[in-house]
Amino acid sequence: MRLLRSLIAIAYAVFALAIPGVGARPAQAAAGPPQTVPTLRHWTAGTGTYTFTDATRVVVDPAYTAQLADEAAMFAQDLGALAGRRVAVVTGRSAAGDIGLSLGGTALPAEGYRMTVAGSLTIKARTGAGAFYGTRSVLQLLHQSATVPAGTAVDWPAKAERGLMVDQGRKFFTVDWLKQHIKELAYLKLNYFHFHLSDTYGFRLESSTHPEIVSADHYSKQDIADLVELGRKYHVTIVPEIDTPGHMKAVLAAHPELKLKSSSGAVSPDFIDLSLPGSYALIKHLINEYLPLFPAPYWHIGADEYVTDYGKYPQLLSYARAHYGAKATAKDAYYGFVNWADGLVRAGGKTTRMWNDGIKSGDGTLRPHPGIVVEYWYTYGLTPQRLADAGHVVANESWTPTYYVLGGPKPDTKWMYETWTPDRFEGGNTLSAPAKNPGSVIHVWCDIPTAETEEQIAAGIMYPLRALAQQTWGSPKPAATYAAFTPVVAAVGHNPAWPGPARPGSLALGRPTTASSEAAYGKSFQIQLSDDRHLTHRPFHDRRYRQGSGPDRSGRYIRVYGTQRGAAYGYSLYEFQVYGGQLSGTRTLTAGVKALDDPASSHTSGTQLITWTPHGGPNQEPAG
Question: pLDDT-derived band of residue 575, with 50, 70 and 90 as boundaries?
Fold first, then answer.
């Protein structure tokens, strides 16, 4: 979506494939605060421990049964996925081992909660959202150990908006992937999911008013209703974007008569002609059709990267002067459109959002309505402070470090964690009143849709999402450096419904690994198994596998044995999947949080590998 995006070829070398360590859950250290992502804002240690048992129930305060029904149901469902058994929801008083939910924390912020850990565990909050976030902390703690140290946590976020945007206009994301990430966002106390539903390669929503513009891969209205309902239960707001008046190639392919034409006759495939009544009719139909489908308080109109040279389009100048006065400029056709669309959104009871790049100084007689939330992504046009001075709420959607571009740049997660804050806008800009900035999200832009699969995107955004969760929540960091933060991320893991070793599928999927960027690859290799870890290895078969799957075999340890390089720089492993039954027993991750580097100088079996501590720099980025 962004003109600055450039193609960067990245080859990943993945190490530390210690499959026997999958599922290890170390007990929490009693001396410090329990590990969560984001961390607990305040923790006061107590005496003793809480233990989750086979008899543990979710117990709801009888005074708030109706208010906490969804929170209790979702919590019990997630606990069940984590524990592998049904967890009952009851009302009444908690017994030892139970987890109680209640309201009444009037002194807490709206999304805050108090968690008391003793023989039983109790969460008390001012709102259902606060109680829900308390349950997320409990899930993270129990993911690591069935025993939690006693104490009291008081926790709340610094920013109201914390989340993820995905570019479905260019790449269709399956409903299952979106559902998976609603739960993943909630697990990290992220609450905002921006659906970018139209762009160059697709229009992704079923339409009754304009079925001719809908792409083959699209969401039915029932799909959206299901996603919205899941988001409601998990306290994740889904905000739609139909990008106008630019980025409309998929729409205009069915309406070539509405394409913007220059004075020289050049036809734009992406820009709709704002001088034509038919353009407004089409967009009005779409906005009014979809406003009721999304109960979120916001509607995103896009409004980015429209015309740069308005002098090429005299019809826009004529339209602007006919509608906005003799002193109007051609750019006023754009500003007038923004305010017209905002009127439709406000009539539907919602607040308009738009990207910032089209709002400049001195290029028109009109200004966007001050009630519009401006999402600041790059240093085009007015600064965040000038936008705020004009009355706008200004969300920090900065290119650096929140943009994850398929076929292009990725977030500098180390810098995000160690240096950046949600109040530092692109270019180092800030606001004098930080409260006018609601927060930030990770943005997945699919410039080259085939550059990554859904699974690769999920792995690629795992660590950036967690760094963003920490920074937008605003609690004390668990460690000063990103390298020291990554073990906390690995310990907390994914939400209980995430595909993993407790469910059918790849035993390696979602496990912490370490990657370094090298132009290296293996031309041939063997997949080998061992029962004694170091002494003897046996190949799956008497041939070498270049890629794809191997036959079914069993063993306690597994390794990739490189037999022929493709270049002079060692080997790179892109993805490693292992399938099998459910794991049991205690297992140790022998190379946890380490990168094992096979040097270019190695030529013989048994060469010692170099062990590095992951540092999160541009040449070494952990992935899930």
Answer: low
